[in-house]
Amino acid sequence: MTPDAPWLIAGLGNPGPWFRLTRHNAGFLAVGRLAERHGARFRRRGIGSVVAEIEVDGKRVLLAKPQWFINLSGRPVAGLMRRYGIPVEQLVVVQDDLDFAFGSCKLKRGGGPGGHNGVRSVGDVLGTRDFVRLRFGIGRPPKGQSVGDFVLKKFSDDELAALPAVLDRCADATETLVQRGLNRAQDALNVASRPNGR
User: Fold this and answer.
1) Is 116 a known active-site residue?
2) Structural domain that includes position 183
3) What is the pLDDT of residue 112?
4) Is 131 assigned to a binding site?
């Protein structure tokens, strides 16, 4: 960790209003919820990103939405890290994830991209995958629907109704990560995912 450097929470997604509530934009939605919680606004900054700045437990945190398409997310993320001197240990990439049911949120450091081209782009440009990923579960497509079509479809009505609570869980986990570290944040997410929080 570099105490004087800010954290960077980079949500992955596609720019433009058409994509706003699509499953592939779960990362944008999660960092947007964090910004709302702290009364912060996104402004264009750096290489191809809009950025909001918040403070969590006295620590400076940058929230970013790269404005290149999701498969090219690596260069905007790397540009922000260079500009602000952010080490990879203080980078969190928020992504949609087909491997978990909708409503699940998981934190993990490192590992392969699991077919997510945005995560692959970040790892390829940085030359390392040793960053934390907040994986926002979107579930698998129904039989007969391609993955590509599924991730670019908007959330269903039932999912939209549940979305605020899921985004709050992601925001809670991210704040705990910055405050208390990865293990504590993972524990908190596991408790929050159990029925009645037990």
Assistant:
1) no
2) 7-189
3) 86
4) no
